[in-house]
Write a structure and sequence with these properties.
Two copies of one chain form a homodimer. Chain A has three domains: 51 residues, 434 Repressor (Amino-terminal Domain) (Orthogonal Bundle); 130 residues, Response regulator (Rossmann fold); 132 residues, Rossmann fold (3-Layer(aba) Sandwich), CATH 3.40.50. With 344 residues, chain A is α/β, with parallel strands linked by helices. Helices cover 44% and strands 15% of the residues of chain A. In chain A, the strands form three sheets. In chain A, strands 2-1-3-4-5-11 form a six-stranded parallel beta sheet, sandwiched between helices. A four-stranded parallel beta sheet of chain A has the order 7-6-8-9. The first copy, chain A, has a two-stranded antiparallel sheet with strand order 10-12. In chain A, helix 2 packs across helix 3, helix 6 runs parallel beside helix 7 and helix 10 crosses helix 11. The interface between A and B is large, with 60 and 60 residues. Chain A binds a DNA duplex (30 and 30 nucleotides) through helix 2 and helix 4.
Chain lengths: 344, 344
DNA sequence: ACTCTAACTGAAAGCGCATTCACGAACTCC
DNA sequence: GGAGTTCGTGAATGCGCTTTCAGTTAGAGT
């Protein structure tokens, strides 16, 4: 029970009375090794509770079996769902997943990419919306590009404007448009939107899709009908509260994410509004829990895990080609009880 | 733009026309380096987009700045909350967090510990209940012990029976007992429990606390009043459905986790039961979303993030002492609208 | 029996970096 | 002004492992 550093291959080799090379080969099974020696080595390794030093292996040329996943917030069901998909595929391929959470700090995102690069992770998957921020995108690109040049694979879930990498893009625009049409069909003509930070491509796309579909039906969405807030439950709560305190004129509220819709739902309930009687509410993403709300939330269902799976698949397959691939994943409107024809 | 492997320190040194040693020193700032040379090195590094190879650094003796966190399922809000706490503290200490999800596969848990050990992570935090399974605990211990001998720090959130490591333990027993007393006080005398897998210490503890408190009030909880199911939303849904199909006699149902309670809530609603009129429902954990359910869920509030923070703090401080430390964190009953006095 | 593969095994060369050693130069101190 | 310091730098070593490369031994071929 020595407290010494770590048991090394050399220790194992010595215990088994073989050369270092033989010990390595016996453990890895890359080359034929006499069965007697192999037995001895295996026994010694077991005995000493030997675990190879992954860093040394890496340095010596073994290929990396680690992929990094960077998301904004692991405790947000959207990211958790996508991350789950990524992990499933990674797991099937014997890859270890290193999941990092930036808590929406762009600087931290860059830092994590840098760290992953330092670790020579074989792939990096970025989950989450790009910011429409040139400076930030540039800093990120400054890490991503050398990483790719060095042989790293990169895939992104969501739309990034200036990153030339493979990506899986939820059809935010189409989904929001479909949703708008469904709501119009219910008879709504007066809408309000609870939006996340406008600098996110996801928000921009969903907003654009929604607004365009309304415009096609000659319904206009004024800027004053859009309340911007944080991309969180509390953000949704605040936005909805503000809308209500202003005097709610809309018959239907669209929250750009389900998480925000959840906050909005509670805000409405606390204000004494009944759903969908007094106002209809719709979200986007179809995170699992919205089915369990009262009333269950109308939303645009995105196959979250699938998004992650596809991204991981892109990252696994060789992506050093000239053009970057884009996988578009459609969302499907799911009408539940939080929406109904407007009263009267 | 060579597609060669990676830019190395040697490349930088060559470009700056200094020795490798000087380049290293200039970059790390460990020793004084002439400002002119330092400038040259920094410029060259920038120019070449150099990122040190973390593996080489590690191998050469740098101390690891990575901690591993292993949980059952990142998409479960309970784990997400705790993980968030861990990450916050890790982040404050400049540590990188590698979060892994075992999807409740004990074998995978062992595999991840092994992998983290191979990477010489400076600490490992295990989130989640121990299994009352000797064989499994032994396999885990066989990884953990050599890891600790090698200088690794380990902390656990939850109670593990045969693991002699520092731990943060939610007061499951006390919390459940407090909850039971609160429910008794409301007037309930007939209970049912939706339990997770009985082999988990968490389930065992919560069940024991609940049952004991009932017994103190001369209320018995028969084995038939306990429905066992998976520790998930669907598990809760199924368990509640079964309870209902059997003919619900209890006036109050206790789900051993909020996640199960969510499923139970929907099952009840779909069966036409109104809460808390027809039946009261209580959960455990106080994950964020239960506040937004209708009705908001009565539960035992555990400071999830704090659990993670304490665990990380334990893991950061030197824990190679003779006795392992145990931090007990109390839960607090939060009465919301899902519980009410029994009808009549 | 003698050479010629085949099959193993050991010695040694790095992988990229931090670091210790050794060395010359610029100072400091009676 | 010669001996005793710093101070800055380069050369060289080693971290633990995989992988040539070069043996060594045994079996095959004629």
């Amino acid at each position: 029970m020595d407290r010494g550093p770590h048991v090394t291959l050399a220790d194992v080799a010595r215990a088994a009375d073989v050369s270092l090379a033989t010990a390595s080969r016996a453990l890895n099974g890359t080359t034929k090794v006499g069965s007697d020696l192999r037995e001895r080595v295996l026994a010694a390794a077991e005995e000493l509770a030997y675990t190879p030093n992954a860093h040394a292996q890496m340095l010596a040329g073994a290929s990396k079996r680690t992929v990094g996943v960077i998301c904004h917030d692991v405790s947000d069901p959207y990211f958790a769902g996508v991350a789950r998909g990524v992990m499933r595929v990674a797991d099937e391929n014997g890859l270890l997943v290193m999941l990092a959470s930036t808590f929406r700090d762009p600087q931290k995102e860059v830092a994590y990419v840098s760290a992953l690069r330092a670790q020579r992770a074989s792939a990096i998957v970025l989950i989450g919306s790009g910011f429409e921020d040139k400076a930030w995108e540039r800093a990120l690109a400054a890490e991503i590009e050398p990483y790719r040049r060095g042989g790293g694979q990169v895939a992104v879930v969501s739309r990034h404007r200036n990153l030339r990498v493979d990506s899986v893009q939820p059809a935010n625009r189409q989904g929001a448009a479909d949703l708008a049409r469904a709501l119009l069909e219910l008879g709504h003509r007066k809408f309000a939107v609870l939006a996340g930070p406008r600098s996110l491509t996801t928000v921009g796309d969903r907003l654009a899709g929604f607004r365009d579909a309304l415009a096609d039906a000659d319904v206009t969405l004024a800027e004053s009908d859009i309340v911007t807030s944080a991309f969180t439950r509390d953000g949704g709560y605040q936005a909805m509260s503000e809308l209500i305190s202003r005097g709610l004129t809309a018959t239907c509220v669209f929250a750009t994410t389900d998480v925000m819709a959840i906050g909005a739902l509670t805000a409405a309930r606390e204000a004494g509004l009944s759903l969908p009687g007094d106002v209809s509410l719709a979200g986007f993403d179809d995170i699992p829990v919205v089915r369990d709300l009262t009333p269950p939330l109308t939303t645009v269902a995105l196959p979250l895990e699938q998004l992650g799976e596809r991204a991981m698949e892109l990252a696994i397959s060789d992506n050093r080609r000239s053009r970057s691939r884009v996988l578009r994943v459609a969302g499907e409107v799911v009408l539940r009880d939080s929406t109904a024809p407007p009263r009267g």
